Amino acid sequence: MPDVIIQRQKRKTQYFTEELESDVSIDMILIRGGIFLMGSPENEPDRRENEGPQHSVTVPTFCMGRYPITQAQWRYVAGMTQVDRDLESDPYNFKGDNRPVEKVSWYDAVEFCARLSRETRRSYRLPTEAEWEYACRAGTTTPYHFGETITTDLANYDQKHEGTTPVDQFGIANAFGLCDMHGNVWEWCQDHWHSSYEGAPTYGSAWLTENEEARHVLRGGSWINVSRYCRSASRYYYNPDSRFDSIGIRVVCGVS
């Protein structure tokens, strides 16, 4: 099992590689389930009201992509027969096979997961909001998984790189082995947007409404955002048909 850089130290992690073709694959990291406090404490700098109240959530074991979906991965899946809707093979502004795909809507992301699931016979989907934050934190309680502060040596944010950067450019992973959880591109989640966690699920499931056209949650911040939007607890939303060059996806699947 290869080494990964975790908090600038060598560690090992459990994963499997989904082989799509000879030079295109997706590394899926095993995220062991557990209980964590979701949201930010009231004294966290840059905290927003929609990040509370903090609440305990139990998250079952699942697998998550080591990186956001890249353009090479997107292009391969976009070439498959459609399930429900067409996909553009090259929607992105910032070209590069190893850069994250961007300018994809929530509907596009769901179609990507459906095609990938049919191809691999594994159930791929978008993460729930609770899964995303649990995976990002990887046992930490600080604003970022690497500590109290963030710099442009650690992540791509605040327009310092004038666009997206290749995944894992910074060579830093969290304690689960996940990279690029702060900045680069926002990542779609399954959940519909709620303005607080009052009444939120406590078992890591998606929090949905009956309005299928409701806004969906995004996590992680992006290359264009200032640091406060890149915190582990930070959350935002867009309409499901929104496409911007700051929005990408990361996939998860169940453990069989």
User: What does the main sheet amount to?
Assistant: 5 strands, antiparallel
Oligomeric category: single chain
Helical content, roughly? 10-25%
Radius of gyration: 17 Å
Strand content: 15-25%
The number of distinct helices, counting runs of at least 4 residues, comes to 3
State mean pLDDT (0 to 100 scale): 94
What's the order of the H and E elements?
A: EEEEEEEHHEHEEEEE
- Contiguous low-pLDDT stretches (5 residues minimum) are 1-10
Secondary structure class reads: alpha+beta
Give the N-terminus to C-terminus distance in angstroms. Answer: 20 Å
Give the strand tally.
Answer: 13
Q: For the largest sheet, list the strands in their spatial order.
A: 3-4-7-13-8
Judging from the principal axes of the Cα atoms, what is the shape?
Answer: globular
In words, what does this structure look like?
The chain has 256 residues and is α+β, with helices and mostly antiparallel strands. The chain contains three helices and 13 strands. A five-stranded antiparallel β-sheet has the order 3-4-7-13-8. The longest helix is centred in the middle third of the chain and has 15 residues, at 106-120. The radius of gyration is 17 Å and the shape is globular. The two termini are 20 Å apart.
